[in-house]
Specification:
This is Xylose isomerase-like TIM barrel domain-containing protein. Residues 43-219 form the Xylose isomerase-like TIM barrel domain. Pfam families: AP_endonuc_2. With 280 residues, the protein is α/β, with parallel strands linked by helices. The protein has one domain: TIM Barrel, CATH 3.20.20.150. 44% of the residues lie in helices and 13% in strands. It has helices at residues 20-29, 53-58, 73-76, 85-104, 122-141, 154-164, 177-180, 185-192, 222-231, 250-279; strands at 8-12, 34-38, 64-69, 108-112, 145-149, 169-171, 199-202, 238-241. An 8-stranded parallel beta sheet has the order 6-5-4-3-2-1-8-7. Helix 4 (85-104) runs parallel beside helix 5 and helix 5 (122-141) packs across helix 6 (154-164). The longest helix is centred in the C-terminal third of the chain and has 30 residues, at 250-279. The two termini are 24 Å apart. The mean pLDDT is 94.
Length: 280
């Protein structure tokens, strides 16, 4: 892909009715070339790094592994104080996450900061920076990029980038999570553009199996946020559909994927327009 080519359309396996290899089959049937995977865990499905599983996924034909996340961290608590059993558990999960991405050949890992990992205080922000600083160093050693998915205000998000202080560290943009937290996703994208990962989660409403509005039908103003990314000339490798499709409604999934592809074409066009304007 050139710097401003049409982004790949991708799926998140944790928003599908199946995980791992079965999710890859869904992507293949829907002509989706990219996939993000969840590490799994208690209440989150089978572990992605179970013996032999990563090797089978790496050999899958037609679907490129783009990223791995660990949603189980939302159940554990990334901000647990150093020296506690919970903090040790967090470190263990992060190592497994990084190792899984390296074995799978996915270039990006991202760490969610919601529920028990929410950055809801100054102390939580400082602790998140400490944990991610260590993880970013490990990611860099493996040739990976590490991103944080959060709903921080722009100034706090930029502070986190400075405190982690690693060229491997980025911010993962979601087109709806900031709005759900009372923020403007487009303004957030504008303020943090130099630090955004080249994969973007696109959704248009809160999670709920087959109840999330189709892209463009909710209040997320998804296209406006992506237009902002284009105006900041931030290259995008993939738009990852994160609307909730766990209920298995194939027609809704097909409709949403058509809309993601249209957004990808629009983003490429806006990038071209911006590049031509800057070059004139």
């Amino acid at each position: 892909m050139t710097a401003y080519g049409t982004p790949l359309t991708a799926l998140a396996d944790w928003r599908l009715p199946a995980r791992g290899a079965a999710a890859v089959d869904i992507a293949f049937r829907h002509r989706v070339p990219g996939m993000q995977f969840d590490l799994g865990g208690p209440g989150r499905g089978p572990w992605l790094d179970a013996p032999g599983h990563l090797a089978r996924l790496a050999r899958a034909v037609g679907v490129t592994p783009l990223a791995v996340t660990a949603n189980v961290l939302n159940d554990i608590g990334l901000t647990a104080p150093e020296g506690t059993l919970v903090a040790a558990r967090v470190r263990e999960v992060l190592v497994r996450l990084l190792d899984a991405a390296a074995e799978l050949g996915a270039p990006l890992v991202f760490v969610p900061s919601f529920r028990r990992s929410a950055i809801d205080s100054g102390a939580a922000l400082h602790r998140t920076a400490e944990v991610l600083r260590a993880a970013a160093g490990q990611a860099e050693a493996r040739g990976l990029r590490l991103a944080s998915e959060n709903v921080l205000k722009p100034e706090a998000a930029l502070w986190l980038v400075r405190q982690v202080g690693s060229p491997a560290f980025q911010l993962l943009l979601d087109t709806y999570n900031p709005r759900a937290a009372g923020l403007d996703p487009a303004a957030l994208a504008a303020a943090t553009a130099p630090h955004l990962a080249d994969q973007i989660h696109v959704k248009d409403g809160p999670a709920g199996p087959d109840r999330t509005p189709l892209l463009g039908d909710g209040d997320g103003a998804v296209a406006d946020t992506l237009d902002t990314v284009a105006r900041r000339c931030r290259p995008v490798r993939a738009l990852v559909l994160e609307n909730d499709h766990r209920g298995g409604d194939t027609a809704r999934l097909t409709a949403d994927l058509d809309r993601v592809r249209a957004l990808a074409e629009r983003l490429a066009h806006r990038h071209t327009e911006t590049a031509q304007t800057w070059g004139s």
